[in-house]
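Hi all, posting the design record for the shared folder.

TITLE: backbone redesign
STEP: 1 of 1
STRUCTURE INPUT:
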């Protein structure tokens, strides 16, 4: 399922400057990656999130930041190919602008980074001794999807559906599309655990699950706080 356009219950009221900035930074980093040539694997090894570095607190290479926990942030802006960054940035644009409009610019930025960091830590917890770097913004974007689901449950998503060899456009509810996406991530993650491998597909399913979970929790808490603030009597 590839989202093309969303129709939320209410249109955004402000320019999504943070969403646009995040997309531009990701594209800029990816453009830089394209210039690295044979040095690209070292760059990914240095700034991707390597579970063993996080669990031991020690870098595995001389080019890795000495404060290895910084890679939980840097990894969010590194991508492994055109499809990787294209898919992530499409999802971020479709769903991020409205979530940013609801939360506000600065809160949305903090929310996005928090989801990405927690997503990385969940993946580390699944394979704490792995030396394979995890990269990409999908953990943070999973949190954005969760926030969108809570904030715009009645939205519809114009979606390109790939059903075997056939392509079709359809309008799906946000609950159906995002819910199906999350169930797929969860089932795939459990299947990897059952097969005793967390790197066979090259997809960090548990980072997606973790990002989605913290997105639900954070936006849910924000809604409770804002609800009680609006109901509180004026002094």
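Okay, here is what came back for every position:
SEQUENCE:
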């Amino acid at each position: 399922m590839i989202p093309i356009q969303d129709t939320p219950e209410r249109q955004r009221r402000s320019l999504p400057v943070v969403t646009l900035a995040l997309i531009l930074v990701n594209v800029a980093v990816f453009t830089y990656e394209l210039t690295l040539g044979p040095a690209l694997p070292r760059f990914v090894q240095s700034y991707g999130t390597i579970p063993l570095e996080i669990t031991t607190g020690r870098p595995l290479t001389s080019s890795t930041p000495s404060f290895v926990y910084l890679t939980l942030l840097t990894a969010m802006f590194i991508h492994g190919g055109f499809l990787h960054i294209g898919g992530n940035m499409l999802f971020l644009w479709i769903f991020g602008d409205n979530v940013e409009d609801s939360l506000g610019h600065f809160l949305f930025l903090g929310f996005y980074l928090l989801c990405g960091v927690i997503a990385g830590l969940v993946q580390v917890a699944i394979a704490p001794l792995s030396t394979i770097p995890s990269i990409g913004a999908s953990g943070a974007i999973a949190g954005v999807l969760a926030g969108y689901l809570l904030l715009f449950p009645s939205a519809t998503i114009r979606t390109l559906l790939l059903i075997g060899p056939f392509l079709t456009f359809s309008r799906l509810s946000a609950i159906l599309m995002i819910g199906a996406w999350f169930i797929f991530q969860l089932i795939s993650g459990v299947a990897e655990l059952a097969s005793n491998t967390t790197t066979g597909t090259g997809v960090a399913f548990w980072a997606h699950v973790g990002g989605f979970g913290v997105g639900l929790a954070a936006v849910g808490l924000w809604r409770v706080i804002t609800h009680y603030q609006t109901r509180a009597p004026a002094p």
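COMMENT: The radius of gyration is 18 Å.
Let me know if anyone wants the other runs.
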